[in-house]
Amino acid sequence: MRLQIEDASVVFPAPKGAAPTEALQNIQLTINDGEFVVAIGASGCGKSTLLNLIAGFLAPTSGDILLDSDLVQGPGAERSVVFQNHALLPWLNVQENVAFGLMLQGVSKAKRYEISDRFIDLLGLQNFKKASTYNLSGGMQQRVGIARALACDPKLLLMDEPLGALDALTRERAQELILRVWEDTGKSVFFITHSVEEALFMGTQLIVMSPRPGRIAHRFDLPFSRQFLQGTPARSVKASQEFIALREKVLDIIFSDQEML
Amino acid sequence: MNDTAKTSNASRRLGLLGRLSRSRPTQPGETYGVPGSGETRYLSAATVIGMLFAWWLITTLGWVAPLFLPSPQAVIHAFITISENGFTNTPLWQHVLVSSARMLVAFFFACLFGIPLGLAIGMSSVARGMFHPLIELYRPIPPLAYLPLMIIWFGIGETSKVLLIYLSCFAPIVLGCSAGVRSASIEQIHAAYSFGATRWQVLRHVILQAALPEILTAMRIGIGFGWTTLVAAELVASREGIGYMVLTASKFLQTGVVIMGIIIIAAIAYLFDWAIRYLEHRLVPWKGKV
Ligand SMILES: Nc1ncnc2c1ncn2[C@@H]1O[C@H](COP(=O)(O)OP(=O)(O)O)[C@@H](O)[C@H]1O
Ligand SMILES: [Mg+2]
Predict the structure, then answer these.
(1) Around Cβ B136, how many Cβ atoms within 10 Å?
(2) Is residue A158 domain-resident?
(3) Is the separation of the CB atoms in B264 and B96 below 8 Å?
(4) Does A91 sit within 8 Å of B195, measured CB to CB?
(5) Where in the sequence is the domain holding A33, given as residue range(s)?
(6) Are the beta carbons of A83 and B187 separated by less than 8 Å?
(7) Model's pTM, two decimal places?
């Protein structure tokens, strides 16, 4: 799998009188097989717009989005999305939610429950298979959202601030869980976050975006998730000199973009 | 220290004005400042019992002539006699059945055509452009206003009666369903597409499912409008039906029968409403929980 964004720009037409919004300008990005690309940046710098481009919900004003050298021309099961507010379907229970994508693809009932059970186990939901989603905690709901996206067997998993609504403790546990699942499944991931620490900890590649016009201002290769997966405890990783130095550097970049309130 | 002492302490500190303008702190387990919180069952029961008692008292003391307001006993008596002997040579159950059948047929067709039309109006700008103005044009007109036209067009038989009820159910069902289409969140829709859904699958598995609570609410409102039109529909050239019974009784100043008829209509309408609420409870237990 290889996703390429070739010189993509997005301009939103203006409401009457105002200037049009240059949400993205000349974006150049490659996501290789098994990579975990994290996007971070001040609010309004075009992170969600970039994700919408990759997902195929939005066509670029200019430039191309290529998946294995095919032009992306709309959403598809090989690029499934996880949203911040999980967007589960409350009329289905946990198991049916996880099997939803497979149901859409016409997989037989026995087969799709067999597949979805694997991801239910992987995300630690085995005791909640028959539960109603609206009775679960936020963290549990988000696990269902991730299991549901993975069950479609995407080549690329797209996540728009998936942990943004969780409390700090649940969030750290969820980060570790996602990394383990990523290692287990070998999927490529495009992950948006507001948290610098999360970005550094999770990614193999970090893109720092700047607003007006939205663009990729800096790129970093990250070693930290590999360190964690090779056995260093998460807190030791996050407390290392290297981690802290990079965190301050990225914070400096983002704060200088943030408008004064 | 006991509860009364605590309460009176608190109210003394706040004073009467303070109590009125600011809510007391809640007990553990309640939430401070929730609008309209608190148990109403006993108060509601007391209101109903109090009203019945006042009715009984006023009529028993002879403050109001029975012609205007017969006593509760007289209404019960009217119910018993009519159950036994019928009204205008038709048994009571037949009046009830005929009215319910008119309602059900009209409501059935209103749902059959109204729900798909409403969904189409919500889903497609073509359907909205074509049909929305028509619905909005006739909706505010009171059914009694076009009753004469119904009669000229469809005669005085069942057709015009059922059609009148149908029309009054139809508009709220269409409008409710067209609004219900917007119940699914855009994230739910996007997620489905990103799992490979076709447009048809998104409609069938996301938009319609999410709209179900609003569809049921629309049906409830529709059937409510239907009942309000029933009596008007049975105004003309009926020989059967509760509405007919009430109107005929009023001509002969049988006020007891009138009140009885009203109570029967209320009871059946309540039953219908309860049935849809039950359906709601069974079909969309997740309503309001997301
Ligand atoms: N549908 C839209 N129409 C017009 N402007 C939009 C639309 N979506 C996003 N924008 C604008 O594009 C910019 C980037 O938005 P977004 O990608 O949502 O930022 P982020 O996710 O980084 O907070 C913002 O200035 C936003 O106002
Ligand atoms: Mg965003």
Answers:
(1) 11
(2) no
(3) yes
(4) no
(5) 2-72+163-259
(6) yes
(7) 0.84
